[in-house]
Records
---
Amino acid sequence: MKRLAIIGSTGSIGTSALAVVDAHPDRLQVVSLAAGDNAALLAEQVAKYRPLAVAMATEAGAERLRATGVALPGEVRTGSDGLIAVATHPDVDIVLYASSGSVALEAVLAAIEAGKTIALANKEVLVMAGELVTAAARRRQVAILPVDSEHNAIHQCLHGHDGLHVRRLILTASGGPFRGRSAEALDQVTVADALKHPTWQMGRKITIDSATLMNKGLEVIEAHWLFGVRPDQIDVVIHPQSVVHSLVEFVDGSMLAQLGVTDMRLPIQYACSYPDRWAAPVPPLDLTRAATLQFEPPALDLFPCLGLAYRALHAGGDVPCVLNAANEVAVASFLEGRIGFTDIPRVIESTLAAHVPAPADTLMAVRRADAWARAHAAHVAVQSTTRGI
Amino acid sequence: MKRLAIIGSTGSIGTSALAVVDAHPDRLQVVSLAAGDNAALLAEQVAKYRPLAVAMATEAGAERLRATGVALPGEVRTGSDGLIAVATHPDVDIVLYASSGSVALEAVLAAIEAGKTIALANKEVLVMAGELVTAAARRRQVAILPVDSEHNAIHQCLHGHDGLHVRRLILTASGGPFRGRSAEALDQVTVADALKHPTWQMGRKITIDSATLMNKGLEVIEAHWLFGVRPDQIDVVIHPQSVVHSLVEFVDGSMLAQLGVTDMRLPIQYACSYPDRWAAPVPPLDLTRAATLQFEPPALDLFPCLGLAYRALHAGGDVPCVLNAANEVAVASFLEGRIGFTDIPRVIESTLAAHVPAPADTLMAVRRADAWARAHAAHVAVQSTTRGI
């Protein structure tokens, strides 16, 4: 029996994780749950899974949870302390980070210190603080199992193989809803357009990141930290069908690819079962129905976010953290209708240009770079809005 | 340094193997060579690699080899004894079976008894005597490394993974030159048509087997013996581009696939280097140039050889051996212009129908079934020719 903490249990990944728990009641047990805002759903989950610890993002949320009248296991914790309490509960074996955004960073570091296995669906943590997090994991000999379908695919392809035999990692990208659009057409993109992802059902932030290709850029940075490869060993290929989830090229030119249906329950379950594999509650991929798989190079000129991410990774230090923070602000501004789709990379580039790179070897340095970049990007976004009027 | 015997050094696989040796002179050394008929090329190879033992198929061939005047390492051995001498030379670590046909069977068993690693490009040996060969390899703890691109792909996909996690092996097939043809069109196929393979350059026998899909049928039988899976765990999918060389589906629905360029030097080198990997003398696959990969179910009604192979594998005992022998006779008859393309499965089916299944647990039983099937199939082929007139 593996005992699970889920950070972000009411979101898309969190609910999929609970579906995996439902499929394997003899193998997985929920110990603790943390939600952002959705007190009603967390109340249902508490009633069903009877966790030993729960947290909500804010005191207002905690109050709403208490108001549901559900039997709670004790105090409802909040904020970063709440996430840390949920992640480091002594009965927990694996912590699944299913929420997006940078708020989970301290809770990841705390769980590593507590010796928990980390199942990571959150992108920002490694992008902001890859050096800190992976160094801590090495020191404590804690495994970080990627849940993101691309890194999970690479983990599966690398399993059992010698790292010295790896020449290149190839991350596949669906290309998002705007693959093949002209620069002019991209200028006219609306929020509703950008939220229509062709192959994956995901949260709003990650769906926009997928449309700009920043999602893939963040994954390139994560791949560097997760698999210990150089930036020039990580490539991106557009694969609109999202059937091949990523590939590894070995020194002899042979490639291994992981394929599967586009259902996050698969990589979540893999991270929970590893190194075992369990029967999955999803139908297998029928290759003859997938029929045609296409591959093409990404249009770096039309989707500059991918190039910005490579630039940030090459620069190192706190630059990826700044990239990530500027992107979070830019995407939020776009979702609020305050800037256009093609303003997103402009806000990021302008923030990177104003930034003086520094090391990212302490939590404080990371948080400082993050705060500076958010403030700067917000300022740039407002200017961009003003210009737009 | 790994020391190599090559059975069939002048053929397509054999010359590719020597190209791999040329690329890694510090890692591979040729100890012994056996050729079928091509004395002139073997003489060149002897002059270049200075093997410690050589063999030709026949005494006439040996005489031609001596007549070239090349400095020979001693007696030129012939026949099955010649293959055994080459395969079991005390300095040999790995024996590469690069010839097609059933003649190598005794030499495979002898090399296993001598504790050599087996690199197997020959299909017939496992189809005829899979039980005998794999039981001997288990007993002597000898590895059988498949060189065939499909089994090599599966070997790469399985490496490091628990066999209990495997749900299904999926062999890809190019579909051969006649994919999509009507039954009427298949009746009109000429030898020249059948020898035009769309993606692989191979010998004549295997090219015809590829056109009838018997090649894939033989591979299904081999996969059963190589990987210890049940017949119903082996599927075939048509993939005309031959970029995905085969796949493994795990119990959780996840699939791993091996991809690469269509160059036999890759799987040959993998078998020689395993468990290491060495830089290969071929350019890597560019997925964005491969561009489109298609998958479709095989047309079992139009290509009955595949179904016959599954039937033979299910029947077990000496039935696969009979299938293989009947196929060799039928293909030879077709290549000699004596029977039509669609007569090939008819000859095999008629031979299987007349056969009384028996165990294949001794070399004598295998050879007896093989001889009976050849005689019967030749008889059927002649009848078929007579009918044709």
---
Amino acid sequence: MKRVGVVLSGCGVFDGSEIHEAVLTLLYLDQHGAEIRCFAPDKPQMHVVNHYTKQPQAEETRNVLTESARIARGEIAPLAKMNLDQLDAVIFPGGFGAAKNLCNFAVAGPACEIDPDVARIIHDAHAKGKVIGAICIAPALVARAFKGEAGVSPTVTIGTDAATAGALREMGATNQAASVSDVVVDAKNKIVTTPAYMLGPTISKVAQGIEKLVKKVLEMA
Amino acid sequence: MKRVGVVLSGCGVFDGSEIHEAVLTLLYLDQHGAEIRCFAPDKPQMHVVNHYTKQPQAEETRNVLTESARIARGEIAPLAKMNLDQLDAVIFPGGFGAAKNLCNFAVAGPACEIDPDVARIIHDAHAKGKVIGAICIAPALVARAFKGEAGVSPTVTIGTDAATAGALREMGATNQAASVSDVVVDAKNKIVTTPAYMLGPTISKVAQGIEKLVKKVLEMA
């Protein structure tokens, strides 16, 4: 049984994990017989966004781990405790949370900072030959983690937005286009990516790429 | 194209919609070509529960519509505006939100009160021959809506908990067992139910019953 860590970043597309992407990741991991372990950083979210009005709620603060626990039905641990020695692969679903709470790419672009535990996990996975899956905007985490490291230029997809793709290239990644139902496999670095809601448009389309990603991650793990 | 209303009750199993059940409902509706319209009541949640510690957060209030919008990616309308004339069917995912925010079955059992819009929607659907789908604990809403109405004894599943099943029978419903991968069809009243996380144990099992429910609802609509 392959053991896969899923790194969540809150609960909701505009300030946390994209819920559909996260749930579909769990669905296909379970369908394909993997053991799932969810993690999230125990720290405040960058923003709380009212998902009905789409306006930030400046007066409110929420914790990334606490909100991520909603998606995981309470079965989740702090990211600080994530140990790659106990896992065969790690998957990062998307949503603005990946670009606000796991790094700050959403506001700082290619000059973004990355959460130290996220950087540790990506480097550990790479060093130990574990597989990394990244969905939607989450390939930005992979690009940021290896920024400035000679010899590692991860090949990832990020959708068709030219500015976003340019920002990834600025961080040293190689951008490769893929449709919403497809994945990009960087066999050398053991990285699998799919654009999901960077392209959309609907959940059944996004599901095709995520199922393919999960199967590929498990196959390579 | 069949038009299906999905009634959400917040975002998280312990105080809102069970997220997996809600997302799987959207997934299979989209996969099977339905047009999806999400709704939720614009009112405060009964509770806010910290899903990591599983403790109520007494000092915090959240709005059912605002939190439900996280699952719907912002594409949602207030339940008061839900009009059965514009829909072919309605589906209620489960989670404690169905038993705390759409009715108060979680605290009042068979003596529970039901949200007036939820009662209106269930009665309207029944009167107009639209199909009703109810997942997990949500069959309690159907039982409560028809409580005391001579001639309507909906046949529904609710899992294997004897006390819960007894409470549904006290409200006048007929309880029928089903496995997590199966549905109960009340053809006379056009009601389809599946136990989902009342039985579990994992997302891929729950998905089997929900996909069957969605297909049956669309077939009967």
